[in-house]
Amino acid sequence: GADGRPREKGVRWKEQYGKARKYTHFQAMLDEQRDIEAVLIATPDHTHAVIAAAAMRAGKHVYVQKPLTTTVHESRVLDELATSTGVVTQMGNQGHSSDD
After folding, report:
1. Has residue 80 got a pLDDT over 90?
2. 28, 32, 54, 65: most buried, per Cβ within 10 A?
């Protein structure tokens, strides 16, 4: 049969974090949750620059999963935004392993 552990883990997560706000668009989150200090962007590659730029303009520190951008121009725009807004930025690669 199918491994039921992922479903069990999902149920536990919902119980523990079920009150987390959910959004269908990143801009709504940035507009409504002005108290957040930083965002982690782990979306489809072609959306990284747009979301990172919006977050920087909102004064949020930004961690972006690789690739940071898809063009040199996007990279330059983000560099200018990071400098002008004074936010901290980082690009990285998330990975995990589990015995579960």
Report:
1. yes
2. 54
